[in-house]
Amino acid sequence: MQNTYQFISDKGVFSLPGAADYSDLYFPVAGECGIKSAVTPTLGGDCKLDQNTFLLEPVSVENLHNNRNARNFWCHIGTHGSWSATGNSAEEIAKKFTDLADENEVTAGFMWQTVTRTSRKYQLSAQITSFVPLDDPMEIMYVEITNTGNMQVRFTPTAAIPVYGRSADNLRDHRHVTSLLHRIRTVENGVLVTPTMSFDERGHRPNEMTYFVCGYDQTGEAPEDFYPTVQDFIGEGGNFERPKAVVKNLAGVPAGSAYAGCEAVGGLHFKERILAPGETAGYTIMIGAVRKTEYAGETILSMTAAYRTAAQTKAAYERMKTYWEQKVNVSYHTKDRQFDRYMQWVSFQPILRRIYGCSFLPHHDYGKGGRGWRDLWQDCLALLLMNPDGVREMLLNNFQGVRIDGTNATIIGSKEGTFIADRNQITRVWMDHGVWPFVTTKLYIDQTGDLAVLEEEIPYFKDQQAGRGTKKDAAWKAQDGCWQRDAAGNVYRGSVLEHLLLQNLTAFYEVGEHGHIRLRGADWNDALDMAGERGESVAFTNAYAGNLRELAELLALYAEKTGKESVPLNRDLFVLLADDDTLYASVQKKQELLTRYTDACIHEVSGQKTEVSITELVRSLQKKAAFLTGHIRATEWVTDEEGNGWFNGYYDNHGRCVEGVFAQGVRMMLTSQVFAVMAQTATDEQVAEIVRSADKYLYCDAMGGYRLNTDFGEVKMDLGRMFGFAYGEKENGAVFSHMAVMFANALYKRGFVKEGHRALDALYRQSVHFETSRIYPGIPEYFNSRGKGMYHYLTGAASWYMLTVITEMFGAKGCAGNLMLEPKLERQQFDLDERAELFFSFAGQSLHLVYENKEHKEYGAYRPGTIRIDGELWDYSGGEKETRSVCIDRERLKQLDFDVTHEILVELV
Asked: Which residues form the Glycosyl hydrolase 94 catalytic domain (predicted)?
């Protein structure tokens, strides 16, 4: 029987026996001080601060089973041999797939991993815990070696950490030359590497970093001597799996030694130990980096001294565990306890993506770190549910990336509110980017009731890109700065509302020949990137239609709550508010209008604002939304020979409809259906048909649910690179978790609860079926043709999954700042006591929501009945008692005591 992981706590802690027997497993270990590590069951992986500051050699997933130079801890046991406590030895590799191999097991929780390895031959067991402390930029390996035999064991321990110490760009480009920059020295407790300079895509620069590997034994004693260079450590003809210095137990060099122009290794050679049966010896190994200063060595010595003893290291470890566990301040209780614990990891994943960006883990080897525009907004969804403090400022900073033409910067700087047009100044427009800011802002307002955020004035991003990526502003110079200016040369500021209007209205006018929004560089699916001239995205035309309608509703609410009848808007954008049926129906007139606007503000704006009637603005937005919805309904519904229907979502670069029945077979894409359902373009009858069609053409239980598309049977060079991928891989027909979760979300919103739950459940079942998925707990970016989870942890699917479970499945959602409860739980999800529970935060209160389904009713047959808060019967208001939802006033919740958890007990009748 194959191994599988088991949860061993409600805080997400799990264990996996034999973890080192699987090739592609890796675990995230990071902190708030900048360290981002990937750690495998054999301590492979890497460690870095950013793209240009890798402490250990950068790795992609293929390196995990190819590289030899991993973290290691050796025990030289005299004439008996040398044992690697991590399993990275030639001897252990030779025993692989035999009964003589070491036993190994991984136990892990939020931001920590413990590997236990036991050797029959050497009668030793090692337990290595990897974590990043809260206060310092370092990764710690705490190693405990235990004598498991009946006789004493004499051994000499050596930690060996190869130090890369440069940019990821130097992995192949100038690998040897950049080693000539290294200046290596040994100090009292370790090895320091300070390159003289760096050169990469940024140019030639003085180096700012000192990299270090330091250590102590459990009593606080430093190593006896050191192996600071790769050449001297591995020896001529040796390698990291059989290093000569360890095999021969050679004497190292003392503190105070110096080397230049070599590849470095943090080789810490400790004094010999004798362990009695059952006795344990502990060692703290620290891998880190600090800014280069004249006193870098003193800084490092002072910093590492805080972890000198085992007691100090263990105390730091416990503080770290508590910190990250408290970050996940939501928990779930249903009949399926495995699902509840799985959701702890899904809820933690948005935190990981905030730290790691979209890169910096082995499968995410396509990027250079950081997050893109879309990620900024989608990651906020989870933060709004778990930790809304600070989200307002984050939203305002993010809006500063919007240009006056409605496009946005696509590369995010290292600090909030800093942006770059695109890497290497490539002009590219993703036509879906304007969708996400409103989605996130709407959730923020619903959760907080903060309508005033719409009035906040913030600048617009400015660079040479203009005309929605079709032109250059020849008058702009880099020294002008990155903010849009008015005719007087002042930085122009517009309201959040104005930013939202610009993003959605410019998209409304930028249409192709079929009247749908141009695909441009790509939409949500980055691999639809080869239809920039005639491609159109019907899918996201739906999304913009939904935004325009909901923006109108939000404005009406704003007017009702504030009593205001008008809002101030940039006079230049008034042309975009045109409300003319003949204009809407004419592709040419729409394009001409958009060009008039973008040409008028190609370099500067007037800076003048005029009050606009909210009533008229609402009417204009509603008409635009209705036009788009009606146009799609009238032109894009397709059927197969049996009458099954769905929406076409794309036009290729030849201007041809992409979905339907073709000579090559049926073509259907999940994204097209998601936004048609979510934006209410699809009628209830069409939603039912879409589900039937998706079940027929896209659903694959063995792969985790709904595929992203059917097999088009050709490499469509007129649509996108995805069709060059093997079918069932990544964007071409894999089960892409993000879109599958959004399909579930859309179905829940439309009342198709059974169907929505099935989509979520399929992803969950596939994820936790380790025999197939081969991933630790959590949701991956996608499942491939074999059902294996790929690109784990760093996916927006986690935010949407969490959002859907909390706000749709449990139905705990904000409504203009009040708490709406609209449960959509199926009967099978209630536990044996007919209860389902959710711990979450709302209005600054910690809440314990309990639904009781004593009459064993299925969804659709029950509704909220009596409500008790902390045992007291509440006569709730804001909702009709005969409906399936109730609303609890925010102000009443805020009157409850803080710093305690309040129970909301809802009886379903």
From this structure: 323-465, 619-809
Residue type, 297: G
Identify whether residues 416 and 495 lie together within a single domain.
yes
Question: Where is 887: in which H helix or E strand?
Answer: strand 886-888
> Which residues make Cβ contacts (< 8 Å) with residue 545, sequence separation at least 6?
624, 625, 628, 629, 632, 679, 681
Q: What is the tens place of the pLDDT at every residue in 544-573?
A: 999 999 999 999 999 999 999 999 999 999
Contact status, residue 632 vs residue 538, Cβ threshold 8 Å: yes
Instruction: Looking at the structure, tell me whether residues 106 and 161 fall in a common domain.
Output: yes
Residue 86 to residues 54, 70, 352, 541, 814, Cα–Cα distance (Å): 21, 9, 25, 53, 49
576 and 619 housed in the same domain:
yes
Cβ burial, residue 121 (10 Å; 0-12/13-18/19+): middle
> Are the beta carbons of 798 and 742 closer than 8 angstroms?
no
Q: Are residues 318 and 298 in the same domain?
A: yes
Supply 544's token pair. 């913009």
CA 636 from centre of chain? 33
Q: What is the CATH number of the domain that holds 218?
A: 2.70.98.40
Name the DSSP letter for residue 201.
T
Rounded Cα gap, residues 156 and 227, in angstroms: 14
Residue 404 in any domain: the answer is yes
Question: What dihedral angle (degrees, nearest 10) is formed by the CA atoms of 234, 269, 214, 145?
Answer: 110
Structure tokens, 106: 């991984």
* DSSP for 740-798, written as a single string: HHHHHHHHHHTT-HHHHHHHHHHHHHHHH-HHHH---SS-EEEE-TTS-EEEES--THH
For residue 525, what pLDDT is reported?
93
Within a domain: residue 382?
Answer: yes
Summarised one tens digit per residue, pLDDT across range 2-42 is: 679 999 999 999 999 999 999 999 999 999 999 999 999 99
Do 443 and 495 share a structural domain?
yes
Is residue 351 domain-shared with residue 442, that is, in the same domain? Answer: no
The label of the residue with tokens 């041999």 reads 81
Nearest to 371 by CA among 403, 398, 389, 348: 398
Q: Judge whether 22 lies within some domain.
A: yes
Residues 361, 389, single domain; the answer is no
Ranges assigned E (strand) in 110-167 = 112-119, 124-131, 138-147, 153-163
Return the number of other C-beta atoms located less than 10 Å from residue 79's C-beta. Answer: 4
Using CA atoms, how far apart are residues 670 and 734, in angstroms rounded to an integer?
11
Q: Is 899 exposed, middle or buried (0-12, 13-18, 19+ CB in 10 A)?
A: exposed
Contact yes or no for 267/224 (Cβ under 8 A): no
418: domain range? 373-635
Residue 746 lies in a domain: yes
Domain boundary among 635, 668, 693: 635
- Per the listing, tokens 């190869």 go with 162
Q: Among residues 569, 604, 635, which one ends one of the domains?
A: 635
The reported pTM is 0.95
Say how far apart CA 53 and CA 414 lie, in whole Å.
14
Number of domains, the chain: 4
| Residue 509: strand, helix, or coil | helix
Asked if 222 and 149 sit in the same domain, the reply is yes
